[in-house]
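Input:
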Amino acid sequence: MVDLIKKIKVLRSNFDEGVAQVEDKESLQELRNTYLSRKKGRITLLLKEMKNVSPEEKPEVGKKINEFKIHVQQKLDELDREIEKPKYKGSQIDLTLPGKQRYRGAPHPILKYKKRIEQIFLSMGFSIEDGPEIETDYYNFGALNFPPHHPARDDWDTLYLTDDLLLRTHTSPVQIRVMEKKKPPIRMINPGKVYRRETPDPTHIPMFYQVEGLVVDFGITFAHLKGTLEHFLKALYHEKIKIRFRPSYFPFTEPSAEVDIECTVCRGEESKCRVCGGGGWIEILGAGMVDPQVLKNVNIDPEKYSGFAFGMGIDRTAMFSFRIPDLRNFYENDLRFIRQFS
Ligand code: FA5
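Output:
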């Protein structure tokens, strides 16, 4: 009896080794035949040996053989189910886990806002022009009536790459580039990035977007400038937005103005508003009639033609459209903020 019990133990451990080596249906069938085949299966042979066991010991040996047989059948069935599963064996993949959520990309809110501005001007018959972000001193300053060392340059102090090349401080150089290429009538906008040596605060950042506008034709007056900007700003915000023109100074426009809108963050109701300082107004653009000297610089006769120009901060305008109290939010790459616009 002892021999037979030992034999069952050895057979069981051989069987378990065989289980670990099963890879496909064929090797499983082979294992099944080795242990369960009716004529020469190892369990059949074990049962045949029962005739040599004494009647007292038969129940125990029989029980052991039976347990072994159940173990073999269960393991073979398990393997069968696993092999039937397509490709994935064991725990490589848990198909019951929830999938990973993929976020859809979307344009940055400022780029979306820029598109909106372009659409409004396209509908008014303006063209969209382009210009380089690295400019020469001449286009950024000289041709726009900023003589070298003139104090007006201080407001636009910037990053020089060489003595003559710099990161443009405004989109106004594109006025010159367009007037050199095209003759009136001109009606264009140029949206793009500009750079300034600036300490960031809620309404100032060192890299921001501007949109330049330029119209040159016969008989253009300040009334055209005012009407165009009023129409544009009402289309961009809403019909009831309050707009204010203030006299100002730019070397390349005469007369010049700055345009403010009511502070949409506090609506003038908070004396400590971080955006408007309690004044209730915030500047969004500079504008004016193109200085006759600028027209002469590009060989357009100021006796015949006149024009207006404006330059608006896109980020700052977007900030008020969305009623965001800090411009820096747009560039901090906090997805919780950015996703609100997608
Ligand atoms: C100019 O840049 C002139 N080129 C505008 C102009 C064009 C005048 C054509 C006349 C004719 P200014 O520096 O004021 O002007 O800037 C224009 C607008 O850019 C501002 O009203 C504001 O909306 C935005 N802006 C200026 N500085 C910053 C800044 N640091 N961060 C964000 N927006 C700014």
